[in-house]
Amino acid sequence: MSELEIAMGMIIDVFDKYSGAEGNKRTLTKGELKTLLEKELPNFLSSVKDKEIVDKLFKGLDENGDSEVDFNEFVIFVATMTCCCHKYFEQKGSK
């Protein structure tokens, strides 16, 4: 498998690892999302000063308003974070 195929599989595996612990296996609850962020993006959470960031993030990700984050909503989050990181490192490299 190519690196991109492996990366895509890893994103699916991470979502599946945390979804369903509190209910629907196809979605993340707010608690499941918080656990995922704590375990998979610890530097992101530790650098944020707003303690209500998970609530705000969850509300923003829950595009269809069903109080759960489905895989499509999760992938949008991952893609957005990846774009932000890419932009950050591009700017760091040009200095």
TrEMBL record:
Residues 49-84 form the EF-hand domain. The keyword Disulfide bond does not apply. GO terms for cellular component: cytoplasm; extracellular exosome; nucleoplasm. It comes from the Eukaryota. SUPFAM superfamilies: EF-hand. GO terms for molecular function: calcium ion binding; calcium-dependent protein binding; protein homodimerization activity; transition metal ion binding. Pfam families: S_100. Keywords: Calcium, Metal-binding, Repeat. One of its GO terms (biological process) is endothelial cell migration. PANTHER family: PROTEIN S100-A1-RELATED, S100 CALCIUM-BINDING PROTEIN. This is S100 calcium binding protein P. It comes from Pelodiscus sinensis. The gene is S100P.
